[in-house]
Every structure is written in C-alpha cells, then in structure tokens.
Design goal:
- Strands 8-7-6-9-10-11-12 form a 7-stranded parallel beta sheet, with helices on both faces.
- The protein has 2 domains: 117 residues, NAD(P)-binding Rossmann-like Domain (Rossmann fold); 178 residues, Rossmann fold (3-Layer(aba) Sandwich).
- The longest helix is centred in the last third of the chain and has 23 residues.
- The chain has 317 residues and is of the alpha/beta class.
- 34% of the residues lie in helices and 15% in strands.
- The chain starts with a strand and ends with a helix.
Amino acid sequence: MKKKWAVLCATDVSAFPEVLDPLKDVAKVKICKPGHDALLREIRDADAFIASLHVRLDAEAIAAAKKLRVIATPSTKLDHLDLKAADARGITLLSLKYDREFLDTITATAEFAWALMLSCLRRIPWAFDAVKRGEWARDKFRGHQLSGKTFGILGYGRLGAMVGEYARAFRMRVLAHDFKDFQAEGIERVDKQTLFRESDVISLHVPLTPETTNLVDRKEFALMKPGAIIVNTSRGAIINQEALLEAIKTGRIAGAGLDVIHWEWPDVKRHPLMEYARTHENLVIVPHLGDITYESQAMSLHHIAEKLGDFIRADKE
C-alpha cells in the first residue's frame, strides 16, 4: 500500500469537517493553526496545501515547504498566493477559477452585492445603530428605492450575469461593460464611460490583474452622478483607494459598499477608509464576506478536495 500524502489545510473546516472526505483514502490531513508563523512551521512536511484567504502563502512559506507538490485553493481569485514562487518550484496549482459549471451553483457573492447596495441606499447600518441608542427617527434615515434606477455592471462574467438577473427583478435598467463581447437579454452593453456616467448604482465584478488595478480611478469618479453609489465585492485594488476616499468625502458620489479593501492584511484599523467610516454614514465596509456562507464554503471546499484527491490518485497510478 502506497504511503498517504501529507496535506496541510489552512482553512477552518470545523463547521463542516465532512468536506474533506474525498481525501480520506489518499491523504492524512492536518489543520494548520491560524497565522503566518504557524504556517511556516507546519508546511515543512506537507506534500499538498489547501489554502485560505486568511493566511497568505508567500515566497517565504513556499521556500520552507521543501516537499510541497501541489497547492489547492477553494477560490477563483489567487492573489493570496505567490504564484511566481510556486511556479519557479514547479508546484501544481488547483483552483476553482475555470470550473464554470460548478461555479454557476455558487451565488453567495452576487447575493451579497445586493446586501451592500441595500445597506447603502436604505441606510440600514446607521438606522440600526440609532435604534440601539433608543432612537426611532424614521425620516432621518430616508433612503432610495431601486425600481426605475439604472444599475451598472463592470465585468459581465459569471457574477456580473447573476447580479444582472437580480437587477432586472428589481425593475432596474441594466447596463454592463466588459472587455470581451457578450449578449444578454435585457442588458445594454455600453462603453465604460457611459456605464459610469449613467448608472445610479455600479457593481464591480472583474478579477484583479495588472490591467484592472486602479481600474476605477479619479476619472471614473468624476463621471459618476453625485447621488450614485459604488459596490465592490471583487478585490480592493480594483478601486484607487485614495480616489474613492476623495469622492465620498467631497460628495462627488453618495457612498460606497465595500466587501474588500486594498491592504487587507496589515493593521486594518489604521486603513484610511476604516478611519473615515468610523465617523461618517456613507461608507459600509465588511471583512470580505461575499462568499462566506455555510453552503458556498462547504461546496467549494468539497469540490477542491475532490480535485486534490483526483490529482493524488493520478500521481499514484
């Protein structure tokens, strides 16, 4: 009988341990303690690594993992991994990035984009804070309805298509811009300038690449309506953070809902957007919750465990 692989898992699976069942017959799985220091200690003996967005697998960790042959990440986005260092070592990467049929069953991030929109437009976080203080001031928190407004989608891929369907259900005019050609019923394909100029709500659904870094900058904010809001459930660096702060501080736009910010790993309390949000009521920031549901995490982890199990079995043949 061939020796089982040593698999180190950085993702907390305590809420759904059965997701790792596909590895039972081919691997011994060890759950990594939280933190980078623990990762450096425990990855040394790993043949395979199941990644987490909470702990960056950087060049130092990859250098420490002398036996590492494969990295499996239950995500489509890969900026929590040092891909250059992994590629230099010839380490195989498994992800969800191109598993479109499976990904079409994961709707959590698209749903969460609407939670952020409604939080901003209906001022839900600040109204709740007031209620907790004993205030019942309805008119103070007057918001806006979505019906009849224009919804703009930057990036019409899997998630962009989902939020477009939801926007139509809210009786909105829907615009979309993407670098590639697409056709969709009820969706107007427009250029980027038209999208920013005409939309009341803009939702970002593009991957982070060198080309999309700071894709939304001062020029784009200058085009937006003063009453418009922007929602980002993609990656923080897609928006120029300084430009966004200027736009909401000056009233250039009405507000923003952010599931992600740039520089998520350092001391987040000192982030300029966080400091602004503490004393203002037009910016909602949450800690990257878009795909954090029991269902989406369990499905994604089980799927990547199956892929890793298949990889190990193929290697043993």
